[in-house]
Structures are given as C-alpha cells and as structure tokens.
Amino acid sequence: MASRSRLIELTDIIATETNKIDQFLAEHGLPTLSFDPNAPADFPVHSGNADIQQARRAVVIATKELHDLMVGPRETIRWMAWSYNDNLSLHAVYHFNVAKAVPVDGEASYTEISKATGLDEVNLKRLVRHAMTNRIFKEPKDGYVAHTAASRLLVDDPQMIDWVGLCSADFFPAAAHTVDAMVKYPGSQEPGEAGFTVAWRHEGTPMFLEIGKNPARAKRFGGAMSSLTGGEGYEVDYLVNGYPWEELGDATFVDIGGSHGFVCVALAKRFPRMKFVVQDLPKTVADGPSKIPPELSDRIEFQAHDFYTDQPVKDADVYFFRWIIHNQSDKYGVKILRALIPALKPGAKIIINDNCLPKPNTVDIWDEKITRTMDITMLKLLNARERDEDDYAELFRQADPRFKFLGAGTSKGCRMHIMEAVWNPEGAAT
Ligand SMILES: C[S@@+](CC[C@H](N)C(=O)[O-])C[C@H]1O[C@@H](n2cnc3c(N)ncnc32)[C@H](O)[C@@H]1O
C-alpha cells in the first residue's frame, strides 16, 4: 500500500485537532473562532489547558506547512520579499488613526473616513484595502469600511496601538538600515552603532537615550512593551510559580533594572518572608513607591543604581535581571555581571529571566520564529542579542570563572526562561 503523502498527513492533523478544539468550545459554551469585530481578540481557552493548547499549536503549525507547500518555494520567496508592505499599510492605518474613524458596530464610507483622518481618499482606499488582505478591516459593501476583530483592537487597546506604532514607525526604519549599519560598523557591540541609530541619524547615541528625549515617543515605547510582555506566555506568574522561591526563606532579592517593581510585587504577595530592592535609573525609581500596594511597602524598597557600576546591595541572596541581559551585547552583558562581584557572598544566586534561544530544530516553528525575531530585533535596535543556553554559560564564564552556571529552564506555555548561576569563589580556585 502506498504510504500517505505529507499533504494528507497534514490535512489529517488539521482535521483531528480542529475537531478537538471545536468540540471543546461547544461543550464549554465558548464562542467559536471568528474575525467578527465582537469575537474574542484572544484564543478563548486558558493557556494552562495543555491539551487544547497543544491542539491549537498543532493546527497553527500544520496549516502553515500546508500553506507553504501549496504556494511553493518560488512564489513564497517572491512575496516574502515584499512582506514589508504589510508594515506600510499598517503604519498608515496607525498614523492616520483610521480605526477610530470607523464605528465599532457600523460602517463608514471612504469619503467619511477621509474627512475624519485627513488622508486623501485615493490613498486611503489603497492602503486600507491592502490592510484588509491581512484581515484588518473589511468592506461589507463597495465603498464602505467596517471593523474586524483585529482592526477593533486599534480602537480598544491602547497598548496594542502603541505596539503597532512603535513597530511600524520606530522599528521598521531600523530594520531597513541594519545591513547598512553592519557594513559601516562590522561586528559592532556598541548600541550607538545599531541599525536604529543609522536609520534615525543619531549614531553614537543608543536607542533608549534617543527615545527618552521625546516624552511622546518614550510613552509609546512603554505602552508597547506592556503590550508585548502582557502577551501570551510572558505572564509574571510563570516566574512566580517556576522557581522554588519558598526554599530561599528570608531572602533578599535585588531586581536590577526592575522598573516600577511589578515582579517584586508579584513575588512579595506569594512569599511573605522575602525582602526586595528594586533598582533602576533615578527617573524610574522616583515613581516606583507609588506603584506598590501599601501592605507590601515595608518589604519593597527602591534604589537608584546604574547597573554598569558596582552593585551597592551587599550579600543579597538573589540578584535578578528580567528583560535586561538581552538588551546587551556580550561586551556590556559581561560588564553588568562583573559589576555584581564586589557585592557577592558565596552561594549568591544570579537569576536571569529572559528569552533563551532554542537549538535549531528542537522547538516548533511558531516558537522558533518568535525568539529568532526577538534576536534580530535586538541586533537592529541595540547591537544586542538573544542567547542560547551555551551563550549564557559563556557570558558568565567570560565575566568571571567564579560564576558557576547551573543552566536554563522554563515551564510549559511560557515563552521566557530562567537562567541561574551561583557565585562560587572557592569552586573556581580548586
Ligand atoms: C526592558 S526594561 C525591563 C524592566 C523590567 N525588568 C521588566 O521585566 O519589565 C529595562 C529596564 O532597565 C532600566 N535601565 C536601563 N538602563 C539602566 C541602567 N544603566 N541601570 C539601571 N537600570 C537601567 C530601564 O529604565 C528599564 O526599566
């Protein structure tokens, strides 16, 4: 008997797993999946439901493979090379605030939207009709625009609006200039020489400093980061539940670059014996205490500290970095780790909560694409990088052989990893 072709294997996976999901939604009275503006904007089954999430993942991956096979390599690469045009239409929708000119439960004509947005009708129509090919808006009758679930987010979700704005306006030019930057500054580890700085013509000044000069741009950056880090798989619960914090007892935990202390708040609620110091730049820590619930304020303290300089909190049990090390090239990652050394007692833990790149072909293409996209984003913005487990081991080794790297781990459903090292001065000497 002839073996089944890959195409049939894929359609079988899609049929079986889609059925499972459809049945689950029906049995639990959950809405079916739809692009309707009133449909849920997120997959309606909790990320902790491993069975259904696995089925969803299988369908996403199999449909993508089937799609790519059906389109074929030549047509795939032809149109992939033009995919930045998705960004162009999205940028226009964002910039001219088109979503807010369309009623959520009705429709608006191109003439009405043009008047409301100031974008001329001809270009409005071309750009919005392009966005529609990505299911952003629909045209229920000729000349009239209505919302889809995706375009509705550009009305209802301020952080998603910031995310779209940041990516399409600020980051898109950075991507377009990253090869120029690499040609001009080969192998650079300096954030002031990244694609972002070449695109926006402020070479020598890193992205964060430049964005910080403009309050509206900085606010948009903050909102966009909240959108990303509030997304599926980035919830702080994974950190709270993903490490045996209770075993640390009366530990002192230093959250370096901890922003307004939301990680410490989540941990403090669960682990009443722990004490916390949140360190960040002076402007950020000034606002910190106002964000802490009063019942936790005696256990969470704020301190202005530049993480490239010697760590002032001596003999803490945990020095913690979340979303910090991936913003650094190796040169600056090593500098940050070395700055801890004067404060470290034997056995002190250094915990990094960040992405950890998979080894090729060890995770599915959905996850792989997200982390690899993060990695090249770090390149284009800061000449920084995401790292795999070996890269983290090497970073600690380069910083000082007395750091003993213990490895990287994660929990099901989580997109981040916990990397751990201990300070082991005697171990290195023997
Ligand atoms: C990407 S955010 C991460 C914030 C937080 N750890 C989290 O998980 O969301 C980077 C943080 O590092 C802070 N930061 C940047 N440069 C710093 C420096 N030299 N010293 C201390 N904090 C710094 C920023 O103000 C910001 O709060």
The low-confidence parts are none
Determine the number of helices (DSSP H or I, runs of at least 4 residues): 19
Q: Return Rg in Å.
A: 24 Å
Name the overall outline. globular
Number of extended strands: 10
Structural class: alpha/beta
The helix/strand order is HHHHEHHEEHHHHHHHEHEHEEHEHHEEH
Q: What proportion of the residues form beta strands (DSSP E)?
A: 5-15%
Bound small molecules, deduplicated: S-adenosylmethionine
Helix content: 40-55%
Largest sheet: 7 strands, mixed
Look at the structure and give the mean pLDDT: 95
The end-to-end distance, rounded to whole angstroms, is 64 Å
Strand order of the largest sheet: 6-5-4-7-8-10-9
Task: Outline the structure in words.
The structure is a single chain. The protein contains 19 helices and ten strands. It has about 425 residues and is α/β, with parallel strands linked by helices. The strands form two sheets. Strands 6-5-4-7-8-10-9 form a seven-stranded mixed sheet, with helices on both faces. Strands 1-3-2 form a three-stranded antiparallel sheet. Helix 1 runs antiparallel to helix 2, helix 4 crosses helix 8 and helix 8 packs across helix 12. The radius of gyration is 24 Å and the shape is globular. S-adenosylmethionine binds next to loops.
A few lines on this structure:
The protein is α/β, with parallel strands linked by helices and 430 residues long. The protein is 49% helix and 12% strand.
Set down the secondary structure blueprint.
Elements (H helix, E strand, L loop, with lengths): L5 H22 L22 H22 L1 H8 L3 H12 L12 E2 H8 L3 H12 L5 E4 L2 E3 L2 H8 L1 H19 L1 H7 L10 H5 L7 H6 L2 H15 L7 H5 L10 E5 L5 H9 L4 E6 L1 H6 L12 E5 L13 E5 L7 H11 L8 E6 L10 H18 L6 H11 L3 E7 L7 E7 L1 H5 L1
Parallel strand pairs: 4-5, 4-7, 5-6, 7-8
Antiparallel strand pairs: 1-3, 2-3, 8-10, 9-10
Helix pairs in contact: 1-2, 4-6, 4-8, 8-12, 16-18
Bound molecules: S-adenosylmethionine.
Organism: Glonium stellatum
Protein name: O-methyltransferase
Pfam families: Methyltransf_2
